[in-house]
Structure prediction request, 173 residues.
Amino acid sequence: MRLVNKTRYAILGVLFEEPATGYEIKSLMGRSTVYFWRESDSTIYPMLKVLAREGKVLSEIAYVGKKKKEVFSITEAGREEFRAWLDAPTSEETPRNEFLLKLFFVTNRKEMLRLFRERLEKVEKIHEEYKKIEERLGGIADSPRKMVRLKALRYGLALLESEIQWLNDGKDK
Prediction:
């Protein structure tokens, strides 16, 4: 089975809601999906060109004053591909976690505890960020989208809380 670059679905998902420039797509992802799905300029802009060539998105030049912007919108073919991807089973994932890789190779308790302290600081910081996002989402009017985004966020919070507990327990053993 051929591997499909999932960047296309991240972009189609953003454009499913409304047209956007490449910069707006990157900015939205930087405030939302970055916590579980990172994309960079070097992946977003080339994929927009691929999607345009495939007829999945259209681009239109718009002017704001004298500034030229390329605005992308999803086509019906793009909507169909995105819906098919949403309906398909989720593929296998191979997580990449540098902390676990280092932990696998440490050779003594002192190194292990240093890794635990370092990781705990990072995880607690991310947990605080997620709680702030949860507060902001709480202030938004109720909608199906809000409910789903809160579900995704709370999944992340549960994972972080579990990891914090595991790291704290591991320091004592």
